[in-house]
Amino acid sequence: MSNSVLTDLVQSLASGSIKIVDLSGTLEPDTPTLQLPEEFGWGKSWPFHIEEISRYNEKGPAWYWNNFKCGEHTGTHFDAPIHWVTGKDHENHATDTLPLDNFIGPACVIDATAESAADPDFLMTVEFVQAWEAQHGEIEPDSWVLFRSDWSKKIGSDDYLNMHDDGGHTPGWEPDTIIFLAEERNVRGVGVETVGTDAGQASGQEPMFPCHNLMHGANKCGLASLKNLDQLPPKGAVIIAPPLKIREGSGSPTRVLALVAE
Hints:
Layout: H1 3-15, E1 18-22, E2 49-57, E3 60-69, E4 77-79, E5 104-111, H2 113-118, E6 123-124, H3 126-136, E7 144-148, E8 163-164, E9 167-168, E10 172-173, H4 175-184, E11 189-192, H5 210-217, E12 221-224, E13 235-240, E14 251-253, E15 257-261
């Protein structure tokens, strides 16, 4: 590859012929976090907390900075294969050891907004994906497959987590769909607009939490709590999503960006 390819990229970004779309939410104390069923809720993730150290005052007259704490899987975040027991025995499977090409790849955006609006428990099937492929072309290996539900537009209301007595009700995947994407399409991973990569009722699926179970078992990755997927084409965007380099990190909040040709 010649240097002109990178030069062309920089010039295209500067001219606006390639647009950068932010697919990330803002981390703040009100950022929603995953609510697990009661039987799993004893190991809860910390919500985002930020504490000022100094802000041009007696604690630090010329500088502003903060401490913060949160769980690895808070806000818009990256899931590494080590996050799930099925992925624990892979090599180079944590945020500090994953090959760097895991963090950049083409995006296939599958629009299921109408189905998700009609049924908050909508599960994407293999047939739904294949119908999308019939219109837009087969999903290429090493793609990020992004489930567009417009669910991110519910952030700030109780409808985002959509909790009821039996748990959350948010869209997700049929287990066979994850197997299809991981094995037959060899994707890099999947991304969703909901708080986690699985459906709200995934604890009752077989296997339990199929996206986590099967995707990480196949040494693939996940992105959750995405937004602005409505600004991406079905194909053609490129995703950039590096997590923090945490030793043996199971994931981390991340600033997910998409490059889109105008």
